[in-house]
Amino acid sequence: MLNLLTAERIKLLRSRKLWIVLSILFLFPIYQAANSKMVVHYGGKLVQATDTVINGATGILMIDKNGLTILLVMSAFISFFIGEEFQNGTIRNALSLGRSRTHYYLSKLVTAALVSLVGVVIMTVMGMVSFSVVFGFGEVAGISDYVSYALKTFSTLYVLILANVSIYVTISFLTINSGVSLVWSFLYTIGTGFGAGIFQQTEHFKQVTFWFTESFLFYSDFASPAGIAKYSEMILVSLITIVVSSALGIILFKRTDIK
Amino acid sequence: MSETILKATNVSKIYGKHKALDKVSIEIKRGVIYGLIGENGAGKSTFMRVVMGLITMNEGEIELFGESSAKGLQRARRKMGQSIETPALYPELTARENLRVQAANGGVSEREIDDLLQLMNLGHTGRKKAKNFSLGMRQRLAIASTLMTNPEFLILDEPTNGLDPSGMVEMREIIQRLVTERGITVLLSSHLLDELSQIATHYGILHEGKLINELSREELARETRQYIELETTEVEKAVAVLDELGIKDYEVINRTEMNIYERLDDVAAINRSLVLADVNVSRIGTTRQKLEDYFLQLTGGNTHA
Questions:
Q1: Does B107 touch chain A (CB under 8 A)?
Q2: Rounded to two decimals, what is the model's pTM?
Q3: Domain around A18
Q4: For chain A, what is the domain count?
Q5: For residue B303, is pLDDT > 50?
Q6: Nearest CB partner across the interface for A98, out of B49, B74, B84
Q7: Which of A173, A169, A143, A151 shows the shortest CA–CA distance to A60?
Q8: What would you give as a GO molecular function for this chain, any one (chain B) (predicted)?
Q9: Furthest-apart CA pair in chain B: how many Å?
Q10: Distance between CA A192 and CA A249 in Å, rounded?
């Protein structure tokens, strides 16, 4: 599998799509800091509960603030990154050498996970720096041990993103086409992000809303004690999502005919 | 006796109600250039994909380098290279980078890249991306990519497809060189028998998913070579005359027809001898069955070959 990861590294470093993704995640926090500055300049006031990031310290919540943007950017990247292997036929080059399909799948998942990690690290660091420059570092209200909080929060937010990345990888391997994968990934993101709340309206299926990681990402307050108390549940749901989607993806990919 | 590289036994592949492959059995020995001929949709690419493990078969068995278990086949495929249908390349990468990716896929050193680029006449491409290559260059790069892992068995699906005449000649020379210099066994396909006949040593003819004939280069040459066609009502007397003339390579087709395979330039002399011996000759003349005609005859006509 290390050989396959080496191949991915060569491809990625020359991939224009990767640099576009990283540029978006790099520039977005700067734009948001400038935008927030304008809001304050024209008499508005930043409120942590609604604006999420209001200073350098709350910059650790950049993933929470930009959850939907990150997911859409990553879904597009993964759809092309995997779909093009099928469409260019290059997937045959690795598989026909007797490489295990499980290893091939996992190498793509690991690569997508690493790219998303680098992306969210860049976004978070840029968010903290930009907001510190504009509003000062400040603090997160009610948090005494910031370093511990920051590590736990960033890890939890990343795992929530990773669960979706895993789903996008599965969708890409099942659809074996960039365009189709893009559509289904988009529908999944919108559907589970904004549709899962429907279960809240029912008496017996309320809990189902939180079987979807996006419900946590979009509707939890990661700076409140109630939100922080749910970190372990968020990580559990994310890990189950990653395991189930990957297992399903690998099983079905093993049965896929490669054209 | 030379080693069997590929042994496919009763391989079938069904898509819905369509049988893409119907009990195909092929055996390829080391050092052979095996040409798979068939019109578009005959099952050539499907068979190659089954051999490479890219698609599953519904029935049959594949043995590669003597291995037939799942793990064994996986090991055996590391000794193989393929270029099926369009050249599978990363369009945004240069020729060198494409080869680096394949070296990583195969877990082999990048040392051979320069030699392969030279071998395939791609040493001058520099930073030019594969998407800007001509089709001939892409085909050559795809073959270079398959050679990165130093394969013993190469599968090439229509490698001359879309190439201009000089590109076709160049591709044939490259394949020939790989066989003679590197001792590689090759399975290649084409829907042009004439094209394939210039390089292959053995042939398998696929038609509607079935292997309808297998023959060697010599057998094909015999089937399609030039000969004197003789039509007479007195075949026995004609045979005696031919024996007297010292002609040994002839064939009695039926009670009125004979084919003579030697002294093709002496039609007039043979005719004169037959007439002098009172043989009633209805027709005599040289003829040749074209490769295309032979293929059409085998497949029942409706083909592009």
A1: yes
A2: 0.83
A3: 1-255
A4: 1
A5: no
A6: B74
A7: A151
A8: ATP binding
A9: 77
A10: 19
Q: Are B74 and A100 a contacting pair at CB < 8 A?
A: yes
DSSP A145: -
Window B:240-279, CB contacts with A under 8 Å: none
DSSP tally for chain A: helices H, then strands E: 12, 0
Token digits of residue B105: 């896929």
ipTM: 0.83
Residue A225: is it exposed, middle or buried by C-beta count within 10 angstroms (0-12/13-18/19+)? Answer: exposed
Strands (E), B16-119: 18-29, 33-37, 59-64, 80-83
- Longest pairwise C-alpha distance within chain A: 64
Query: Which tokens sit at A125?
Result: 């660091």
Q: Please judge whether B92 and A14 are an interchain contact, meaning their C-beta atoms are less than 8 angstroms apart.
A: yes
Domains, in order of start, for chain B: 29-57+79-221 (3.40.50.300), 226-288 (3.30.70.100)
DSSP run (H or E) holding B9: strand B4-15
- Number of Cβ atoms within 10 Å of the Cβ of B118: 12
> Would you tell me which residues 45-74 of chain B have a C-beta closer than 8 angstroms to some C-beta of chain A?
49, 52-56, 73-74
Residue type, B297: Q
Cβ <8 Å between A16 and B92: yes
Give CA–CA dist B157/B163, Å, rounded. 13
Tokens, residue B219: 């057998």
A133-187 confidence digits (pLDDT tens): 999 999 888 888 999 999 999 999 999 999 999 999 999 999 999 999 999 999 9
